[in-house]
Give the backbone structure.
Amino acid sequence: MTDVPLKLFNSLTRQTEVFAPVHPGEARVYTCGPTVYNYQHIGNMRAYVFADTLGRTLQWKGYKLTHVVNITDVGHLTSDADEGEDKMERMAQREGKSAWDIAKFYQEDFERDLARLNVQPKQHPRATEYVDAMIDWGKSIADKHCYKLESGLYFDVSTVADYGRLARAVTEDGEGRIESVEGKRNAADFAIWRKTPSGETRQMEWDSPWGRGAPGWHLECSVMGEALLGFPFDIHTGGIDHREIHHPNEIAQNQAFCCTNGLDDPKNSGAKIWMHNNFLVERSGKMSKSSGEFLRLQLLVDRGYHPLAYRLMCLQAHYRSELEFSWEGLGAALTRLKRMVMAAGSLADVPSQPEAEHPKFAPVLAKFDAAMADDLNTPIALTALEEALAVKKVDAGIKRAVIEDMDAVLGLGLFALARADLRIRPKSARITEAEITAALARRKEARAAKDFAASDAIRDELAAQGVEVMDGDPLGWEWKLG
């Protein structure tokens, strides 16, 4: 590793800034996690690949990392503002289960997806574990910053300086885009506590000074960020959709709690740097969970694609750029990943020599480090990794150590994958791998005996079952199931 300073784009200041930790030698990061009322689509998962890459880069630069990804299991309405039903309650009614069971099931599925994408383990606190702390937080800011309505306790955004600066689109109606609630002082005011309507009972509700009910969605991140990381912490991340409502509201709460002033000093927001990944775009409309069979990681796996092909697809675009999803693009990422895995395979049985150096790797390591230090420029870093894999006539142990270091940042797990892991094998396929292997062995014998009629017949039999035999492919796929 070289000593290129790490520079990150701060959404709050609209500038790329040199990372300077609040606590020397440490990096404290908070990432807005999922609402666990349903499966996560692959657009959601891009945010966690980005945040994981950020955390890995901080570790590469030598910082001790503390990374929190919250789990929203209460408080998030069907709108990201303050309207509609609670997502957890609605799904519980739809599936005939308790809201607690819904949360447990979908949190476990989310964590399985993280593992399949090689996302490093993080702290995953649940909102329901911090309700008492949220009530205490509300009490501490209520007198100066909130007002009570029949529907609950609301935050008055006019009581803090620079409300909405993060969102970039200040209008006379504010940032909230929130359906009018009778009695609200400002359009952008938002719920700190939502009182259960008279005559209704919710599965998730608690007693509070503002009536029995549940916390507003925005409150949990402020409370857990302060409790687990302390104000100010270093970096807050999330999807670009959070930049417009959720994060401005979170910042306002942080300002109120800390009795801080305006946002000319970013640390008054609760975090020194705010980072947002852009959208994953999918033209068919299957990104939305309302579309039925929406694009989730399991669907990619069912179609026969290894999850890490999707991670590589994410890394091929800069996190602040839109990324368009297509099956062709995923296939290309899979092919690129296989090239890397095959190149790394030649080092599989070689002991790593991390302490040794070789002058051939100095330029490529410098390129890699400069790319990651330049606001996580993963597309350039990937080319540096490929250049390192292509270096010839060097000590294999040194080469393996270099590849391991780069891979530790990009998280592709090159030495944990085998060529066979990357074969495209849809879940719907009826033929087994053993049957394919046996047929290919017979075909190899036929070709060796120059019995091309038998060879072609075996190929045709396989083709009829969806197996494409890939003769002459320099990657050595041997076959794939389509």
